[in-house]
Write a structure and sequence with these properties.
39% strand, 4 helices, alpha+beta, 11 strands, 201 residues, eleven-stranded antiparallel sheet
């Protein structure tokens, strides 16, 4: 537990079960192209592409880190595409065997919004969770940019300059989770989408 809270704190500073089978199937259904919930077509297409990986787990590694960021190089990283709905997609980021951080991309008045959910072992939401921001209009169907919102700037020192960047390779071979602060890239984790290492239990 101490190790988990160490990494939760480290990532916060850098950025500043399952139900019944029927419910699982419904949650992880591919999002139909007719189910338009985002005003920006690139955001709609981005979520549509990510939904193709739902229910699967992929291994990753630290692709880049700056001198201002702690390293996860020696840690076991993986992501699980846990839930895909027309207006919300959830991806769990696992660091070793610690409690995962859930990346939530959801519709917010027709715009794509990124939030980070931290919970403890009992499922309770931890203080300082749900930071993130709304996507800009500069994204594409393969990359989206999420500048920090006002809430994030208030709860994390220095985080008002954060921009989270989530992207897919155009050949769909990898998924990237990256953080920039100001003009500096702080870290980037990449996950190999060519070979699943597990599925949603």
């Amino acid at each position: 537990m101490k190790t988990y809270f160490f990494f939760l704190m480290m990532i916060s500073l850098m950025m500043f079960s399952c139900g019944e089978n029927n419910n699982k199937k419904q949650d992880n259904e591919l999002i139909s192209k007719e189910q338009v919930v985002f005003n920006n077509k690139s955001q709609q297409d981005f979520i549509q592409q990510l939904s193709a990986f739902c229910g699967k787990k992929y291994a990753g590694e630290e692709h880049f880190r700056s001198l201002h960021s702690g390293s996860l190089y020696a840690k076991k990283l993986s992501i699980l595409f846990k839930s895909c709905k027309p207006d919300e997609l959830k991806i769990e980021l696992h660091i070793d065997e610690n409690q995962p951080i859930t990346l939530i991309m959801a519709a917010d008045n027709g715009r794509l919004k990124l939030m980070h959910e931290h919970i403890d072992s009992t499922g309770e939401l931890l203080p300082g969770s749900m930071y993130g921001g709304n996507a800009t209009d500069q994204g594409t169907s393969f990359i989206q940019y999420f500048p920090a919102d006002d809430y994030t700037g208030k709860i994390m020192e220095g985080a008002s300059a954060n921009v989270w960047i989530i992207s897919l390779a155009e050949d769909l071979s990898w998924f990237s989770y990256r953080l920039d602060r100001g003009k500096e890239r702080r870290f980037e984790y990449r996950f190999d989408l060519r070979r699943p290492v597990g599925t949603l239990q």
